[in-house]
């Protein structure tokens, strides 16, 4: 929206204040500045506000706005007077305005830093979080314009508005004056205000996905009149799944006399439907989609699944069509899955929704699945179905122009029917937000991710998002830090998902192996060692072992306190007649299931070779729909999540004769313990005691175990178990978050560093920033307690001798030319130069070998104590954020890529893990008899550098190389720093939906 000629040219329309937001009920709205073109909208909006709300706004009856009022409320300078409106369908539903005032409450300009603020929300939209969203955005605008405080006068009876101010999380003062409540809010964000904002964001975005997955009614727009076609296929799948809501077929080409199609009402447009339609599945050509979206918006549809192709995957023109599609849908308050989507599925018994192209709806289970690829979605659904696993929900987002993996994480976090979230991602629209949400979700349930398009350096067709420049290995490390289980293939994702959904988390890496094949047991043993597990010697039951032998051996292993998990290996056993009995696996599955039912809570996996029907029998004997009780901590929310969660378990009847079970209708609950469930309080890895059977089950029937996953290869089973072990360890550590040591505050000069940065950027000729000189870098780093050993230039031998005399012998002579920097292997460094004669000789050798001094740029530096050469770096990626990196200097990090990474800000635990997670870490801890180095000093250095780049985002790159870590202390020998205006961050500021 462009400014009018009446508006001052130096206060142009601030289009960066425009934002799409998700409201409390899951609907969307647009927030934008009010302009002079909004006079009619403002009058219309005011006419729909109740007299009571008008009274609360103006403290007197105020039935209509005068022309003067309209002019005042629509003419702003966007600095001292600002008005924002919330719109749906182009019409106002709420407004907020601030006017800058001085200390006497009179209109003022800068440098006055206080403003009076007032809100008005249409009664029909009160309770949707409109005022809360407006407060976040108007506060951000005010801070941008130099306003630090809001003042508001509120009538005591206006409890809703008082609550908006009270619940915002800002520091506030309240007084009662002249019959009204006087509120003053400090606008500086606080830890509480940020937590409030993110909590509202989570609930709103989760609700927006929940509205899509659990609609009360569905209309398929574009349903064909003849069998076949995308629309008719979706309608058929909806009906076949037994969808519990109302279904409608819509096609403008239907004959007027056509009343039903496939047994559901048929209509030419949504306007012909007398009842509310919650979800529309659009399956029409791309050029007809805008018409369908407008029809949906005008008739109150809440969400869209757009199956139509022809958008960003077709290039620049299609990308613009896609953006316009999102703008159009959001203008009506609707969210979109797609375009080019495969569809959505919700297996909840109360919904049974299959609004997808999947011909068969999956069984009900505990796994949530999100994919950005329809083809991968088909493969995953097929693979899970083949292995007897069920799903709670499924979203195939296609080009994911709106609803993304971040939204799915928000939904999965609080969905009581989902125990494991699986995501296939090809791009990350907001990596910082993804890691934040993943960390919170992983604190209560596993998150397993496969990342496609890892090495292409570009986004897949249709995905218009920022491209991260960091290597895929760094992305993987950051996901691990957030608790995400990152796997390489969709097969590994299914393998891990099955184990995590059906089995408790292991208490440690100790693995018992038992089976009837010595060779298969040894293969499993070797695979465990390769994955970093601690296997016990395999127990060979011999090929003559019966199912009862398996049951007894498994029960014994589960009771053994020296193991944390069990892998059962099985080949066809030999019967009494000497022939191999392949059977259908039913009897062995029954034996294993009974052993697990009576044992302690440890994960069990089965590796089988050519035992017909074993996997199917295990799947039939138990299901991911109702897992066996997990350990207490596996259902415990970290402090970041903000609440404790309870484990819910259910008993199910067992048919001993057939070896099958009948599921009970019980699901895990969050928040207060659900009726008939127990609150587990044991530590991770310990069985929760005193867990009663579900109230609806037979009290004499033991709880049914979770699904025992079966694998056709030892390597696959072990890899899945190893991922569970690492995840369980992360959960234990995440339960007690790391800290930033307080001693850093006493040795850091944040204000001094800020002044240096401001001065250096002010003199930078390039608006993109500048690198600091050695002395400038030393001074800045010194403000954060990072001491860089000085170097003195040596343009000739005499200067080198003078520098050495100043620093004191022994010294190091080294080149600083870019092509020789840190390349001791090329002869550019001379160490332990003891005296003047040796220095002159080294100088001559250096210049004779490598070139003239003007090319080599030699420097002299005092020798540091001997130790291990390391490199510490920090950088800011526009998409992922600030990253802290560590490795050994030279070949380990540069040639072998042995570098570890953590997101900033790093805690004491992050720093400790960082130096221990590289493969060459043993070198730091006394490898092969060497003296261990001072890792505590190294951890402190990492924390100081993390604090620097976190406090000052203008520090976009720092490299400390080498950092020589000795048995006592460390020495930073080289440092390079680059300053630049910080990149825009998409994870801070008021809530807003991304625009891809």
Fold and architecture overview:
This protein is α/β, with parallel strands linked by helices and 996 residues long. It is built from 28 helices and 43 strands. An eight-stranded mixed beta sheet has the order 1-2-3-4-5-6-8-7, sandwiched between helices. A seven-stranded mixed beta sheet has the order 11-12-10-9-13-14-15, sandwiched between helices. Strands 17-16-19-18-20-21-22 form a seven-stranded mixed beta sheet, sandwiched between helices. Helix 16 packs parallel to helix 17 and helix 27 packs across helix 28. The N terminus is likely disordered.
Count up the helices. Answer: 28
Instruction: Give the overall shape, derived from the CA principal axes.
Output: flat
**DSSP strand content:** 15-25%
Mean pLDDT: 85
Q: Tell me the major beta sheet.
A: 8 strands, mixed
**Helix content range:** 25-40%
The count of β-strands is 43
Weakly predicted, low-confidence segments = 1-10, 623-705
What is the topology, as strand order, of the major beta sheet?
1-2-3-4-5-6-8-7
Q: Distance between termini?
A: 19 Å
Rg over alpha carbons: 33 Å
Content-based structural category: alpha/beta
List the helices and strands and how they pair.
Layout: E1 19-22, E2 28-33, H1 39-47, H2 51-58, H3 67-74, E3 81-88, E4 91-101, E5 114-121, H4 130-144, E6 149-154, H5 159-167, E7 172-177, E8 180-186, H6 191-213, E9 217-221, H7 230-241, E10 246-250, E11 260-261, E12 264-267, E13 279-282, H8 289-298, E14 303-306, H9 316-331, E15 335-337, E16 343-346, E17 353-356, E18 364-371, H10 374-386, E19 391-396, H11 405-414, E20 420-425, H12 431-442, E21 447-451, H13 472-481, E22 485-487, H14 490-502, E23 510-515, H15 518-530, E24 534-535, E25 539-540, H16 547-559, E26 565-570, E27 573-574, E28 580-581, H17 586-598, E29 604-608, H18 614-621, E30 653-655, E31 660-662, E32 710-711, H19 714-734, H20 743-746, H21 750-762, E33 770-771, H22 774-782, E34 791-793, H23 797-807, E35 811-815, E36 829-833, H24 836-850, H25 853-856, E37 858-862, E38 868-877, E39 881-888, H26 891-894, E40 899-903, H27 908-916, H28 935-951, E41 955-965, E42 970-972, E43 975-979
Parallel strand pairs: 5-6, 9-10, 9-13, 10-12, 13-14, 14-15, 18-19, 18-20, 20-21, 21-22, 23-24, 23-25, 23-26, 26-29, 29-32
Antiparallel strand pairs: 1-2, 2-3, 3-4, 4-5, 6-8, 7-8, 11-12, 16-17, 16-19, 27-28, 30-31, 33-43, 34-37, 35-36, 35-37, 38-39, 38-41, 39-40, 41-42, 41-43
